[in-house]
């Protein structure tokens, strides 16, 4: 994109600056729109599973429901509890939202269509998602209220636990791909399954890792059945209890942006990202981002499906699952994967 | 970074101190990116900001710290603190002097051992797993020993606890957990 701006008569530095800004807008604005629509989709899917209609009043088929909600919270008054730590109380939703958007910088939407094509792309995603917990912890503490504080404690422990196993699962994928670059990982999946399927999922050593990754991504984004941070029967609304209007909306948007990111990571790491599912020439005529979005939506549908189906976990079960089941299993698979690759690909 | 590090010490609220510390870590990671060590920068964020500092914050938030008591201890520790500060300042001055004198050649110049085209994850991997393999494994061993030590020190078995037995819970079927009863009027149900 920098070249385009140079051809418009800018010098190189300004062109790079303008291209970065344009790239950021090109990702962020559709992302926010996608978040609005995905919230609508979530409610519609949930409604269909519960034999309800879901939102159907605002706009055709209720399509504008999320925008109406957005407008509503925008017009509300921001209430700050008098005992709250004011600066941190307002900082927390901003952190959550910013961090949720920052991770999108390294996501490749098509061959070469990525804002920052860095070598450590996957590590960057991991680093940014590990920052997400601060928004929750700070909001819980700054609210100066019991339920948000409990929720913050739960969130901190939960996110750290599952990040560990996510890290190990990613190591398995990186071992197969031989790179941390997300585009490189997608390219490595071309024709991986029987020379024809563009995905890691048919690999018997990586399929169990995908199952673990999918469950961990549910826990990492605090979606049901792991939504203990906002378990309404025990914690009111969790860390968001004291928040209102836009500060609440920022949490909301950040949460869904994170869910979308995790769905997209599932698609990129195990299902070939922007590659068509089968390595067959006519399928490449469809633009890569359509494949990526289709795969992402399939995962989002699974997220909503699980939300509507599975009852909530107990907290000790959640911790046990993370530390006693996922962690040893992913460690075992790292050893098996690296041993197999050492014997077959690199030689002893 | 120095400003946020200074605020770690000067802010009155310990939670604010931890948050400033996190900002300092973050700035350090930024500096690493600027000198071209993106792998170390990412590790710094993942390990320190993402895990260590969260635990710090976790602990500090739950502590009920009495500020007056903290202030009272200040004068007692002042001589020791001043001594440490003087030693650190001397070291800084010596270090600056050494920097003026030019870089020290420690065997092979590591910075130029690999060409710039190799990404620095690969360069570090090559060094760690060949030249410094023994040191690397020794570091790993030390960490394992400290982890086992911490677990042994804190894991005290108390009698009379009733831990969850997950396998028993999963094995339970509805048939053995529930039963249908129709008690007569005025009579209860035996458990």
The total number of structural domains of chain A is: 2
CATH superfamily annotation of the domain at 1-65 in chain B: NADH-ubiquinone/plastoquinone oxidoreductase chain 6, subunit NuoJ
Shape of chain B: elongated
Uncertain regions of chain B: pLDDT < 50 for 5+ in a row? 105-110
Binned strand content of chain B: under 5%
The major β-sheet of chain B equals: none
Number of E-state strands of chain A? 0
Instruction: Estimate percent helicity of chain A.
Output: 55-70%
The name CATH uses for the topology of the domain at 1-65 in chain B is Four Helix Bundle (Hemerythrin (Met), subunit A)
Number of strand elements of chain B: 0
Biggest sheet of chain A, open or closed, and with what strands and sense? none
* Oligomerization: heterodimer
**Global outline of chain A:** globular
Radius of gyration of chain B: 28 Å
| Largest interface, chains and sizes | A-B, 28 and 23 residues
Q: Tell me what portion of residues of chain A adopts beta-strand conformation.
A: under 5%
Order of helices and strands of chain B: HHHHHHHHH
Helix amount of chain B: 55-70%
Mean model confidence by pLDDT of chain A: 82
Structural class of chain A: mainly alpha
């Amino acid at each position: 994109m920098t070249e385009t701006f140079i051809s418009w008569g800018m010098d190189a530095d300004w062109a790079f600056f303008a291209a970065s800004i344009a790239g950021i807008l090109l990702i962020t604005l559709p992302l926010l729109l996608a978040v609005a629509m995905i919230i609508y989709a979530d409610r519609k899917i949930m409604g269909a599973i519960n034999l309800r209609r879901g939102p159907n009043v605002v706009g055709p088929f209720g399509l504008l429901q999320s925008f109406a909600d957005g407008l509503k919270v925008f017009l509300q008054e921001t209430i700050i509890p008098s005992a709250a730590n004011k600066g941190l109380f307002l900082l927390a939703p901003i952190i959550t939202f910013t961090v949720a958007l920052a991770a999108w910088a390294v996501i490749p939407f098509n061959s070469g269509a990525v804002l920052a094509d860095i070598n450590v792309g996957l590590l960057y995603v991991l680093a940014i998602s590990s920052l997400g917990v601060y928004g929750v912890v700070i909001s819980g503490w700054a609210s100066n209220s019991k339920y948000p504080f409990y929720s913050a404690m739960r969130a901190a422990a939960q996110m750290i636990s599952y990040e560990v196993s996510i890290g190990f699962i990613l190591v398995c994928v990186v071992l197969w791909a031989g790179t941390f670059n997300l585009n490189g990982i997608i390219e490595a999946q071309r024709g991986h399954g029987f020379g024809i399927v563009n995905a890691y999922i048919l690999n018997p050593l990586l399929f169990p890792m995908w199952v673990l990754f999918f469950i961990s991504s549910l826990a990492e984004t605090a979606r049901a059945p792991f939504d203990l941070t906002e378990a309404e029967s025990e914690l009111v609304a969790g860390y968001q209890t004291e928040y209102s209007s836009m500060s609440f909306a920022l949490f909301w948007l950040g949460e869904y942006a994170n869910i979308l990111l995790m769905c997209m990571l599932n698609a990129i790491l195990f299902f070939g990202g922007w590659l068509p599912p089968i390595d067959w020439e006519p399928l490449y005529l469809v633009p890569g981002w359509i494949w990526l979005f289709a795969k992402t939506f399939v995962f989002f549908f699974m997220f909503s499906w699980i939300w509507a189906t599975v009852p909530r976990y107990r907290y000790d079960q959640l911790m046990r699952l993370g530390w006693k089941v996922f962690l040893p299993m992913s460690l075992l698979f790292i050893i098996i994967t690296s041993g197999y690759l050492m014997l077959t690909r690199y030689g002893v | 970074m120095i400003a946020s590090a200074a605020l770690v010490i000067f802010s009155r609220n310990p939670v604010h101190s931890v948050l400033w510390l996190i900002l300092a870590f973050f700035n350090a990671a930024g500096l690493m990116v600027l000198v071209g060590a993106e792998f170390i920068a990412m590790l710094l964020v993942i390990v320190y900001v993402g895990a260590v500092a969260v635990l710090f914050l976790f602990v500090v938030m739950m502590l009920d710290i009495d500020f007056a008591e903290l202030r009272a201890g200040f004068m007692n520790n002042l001589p020791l603190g001043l001594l440490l500060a003087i030693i650190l300042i001397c070291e800084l001055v010596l270090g600056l002097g050494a920097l003026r004198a030019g870089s020290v050649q420690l065997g092979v110049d590591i910075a130029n051992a690999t060409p710039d085209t190799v990404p620095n994850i690969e360069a570090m991997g090559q060094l760690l797993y060949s030249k410094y393999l023994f040191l690397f494994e020794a570091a790993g061993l030390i960490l394992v020993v400290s982890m086992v030590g911490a677990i042994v020190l804190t894991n005290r078995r108390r009698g009379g606890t009733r831990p969850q037995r997950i396998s028993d819970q999963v094995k339970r079927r509805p048939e053995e957990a529930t039963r249908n009863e129709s008690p007569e009027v005025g009579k209860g149900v035996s458990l």
